[in-house]
Amino acid sequence: MRSSLLFPRIKHARVVRAPHAPAASARVRTAGRCVPPSDSLVEYAAYIDGKKIEALGIPDALEIVRRHNAAEENGNAFVWVGLHEPDAPEVEWLAEVFALHPLAVEDAVKAHQRPKVERYGDSLFVVLKTVAYLDHDVLTATSEIIDTGEIMMFVGPDFVVTVRHGGLCPLSVVRERLEDDPRLLDRGPTGVLHAIADHVVDKYLTVADLMQAELEDVEAMVFADVSARDIGRIYNLKREMIEMKRSVTPLQSPMSSLAQRRMIPSEMREYFRDVVDHLARVCEQVESSNELCNSILQAALARSNALANEDMRKISAWVAIMAVPTMIAGIYGMNFTHMPELDSVFGYPLVIGVMVIACSLLYRGFRRNGWM
Fold first, then answer.
1. Per-residue pLDDT for 18 more than 90?
2. Phi-psi map region of 16: left, alpha, beta (phi>0 left; psi -120 to 50 alpha)
3. Is the pTM of this model over 0.85?
C-alpha cells in the first residue's frame, strides 16, 4: 500500500522531498503541518489471527490491533511497517506513533551500525547486517565480491517496524512466505523477527559457501605449475573475507542472548536457538576461510620468492658459463708479445676447444644440480 495518506499530519517545519517523487503527492501542507513523502514506505499491514486486515492508515491499523489484543486474552495481532532508506521525518513520525526510543530512531536514520540487539522498555531494537555475493566473470585485484547493507527492526508487543538500508535482501519474500502460512503470522511480532533473522542468516550461509568456492579456486591457482602468481587477487579476496567477518561475527553474541530474553515467548525460543546454531556455523566457516586465506597469501608469497630465487639461479648459471670464454678472450685480447700459442698454427682452434669444453662441463654440472 503506497500513498501519501499513510502518513498523517505531523509537526515539521520543513520536509525534504524524496528524489523522483511527484511534487503533488510528496507533501501536503495544512496550517504549518505537513506530511512526509511516502516513497520510502514499502508496505504496511495489520495482522489478526494470521490474516491480513485492511486499514486506512498506520495509526488506524495500530488502533484496530490494540482493540483486538485488549479484547482477546492471548491476542497476537500486530502491525508490520516496512521502510526502505527513509528520511528523518518519516522515522520520527513513526517514533511518535509507536513510542520508539529516540536513540534507536537516531541509529535507524543514520545507518552504518554494528549488529546488535538492544532493549528499550517493552520493545527491542535489532540491527542485522545483510550480505550479498556479487557475480563477476573474472576475479581481479579490484573486483568487488561482497556487498553489505543493513536491516533495522523495532519489535514491540503489537508492532514490527523494519528499516532497510541498501538494495540487498528485500523482505518482500519473507512477508509473502508469512502471509501464505497463517500459523507463522499467528506467532506475532517475535515470529516476524525470527523469520527475518532466519532469512538473513540463510543468506550468510549462501555467501559463505560461494566465498569458500572462490577461495578453493585461488588456492588451486597458487599451487599450479605456472610462474605467475596474482598476489593482488589473493589480497583482494582476503579483504572481502574480512568484510564478511565484520558483518557476521558481531551478531553471534546478541543473537545468543536474544533467545534467552523474557520478551521472547517460550515456544519461540527453540526457533531462535536454531538461528543461533546456523549463525555459529557461518562464523566458524568464515573464520576458517579467513585463516585459510592467510595461509594461501603466505604460500603465494613464498612461492613467488621461490620462483624469483629459481630465476636468479638460472641467470647465475648462464653468467658463470659465459664467464669462461669471456675470461679467455680477455686474456688473449691483451696483445702481449710473449704469450703461449700466439705463433702456433693450432693456437686458435685450441683456445676455442678449451672454451667449448669448459662451458659444456659447467652446463652439465648446473643441469645435474637443478640450476638449469
1. no
2. beta
3. no
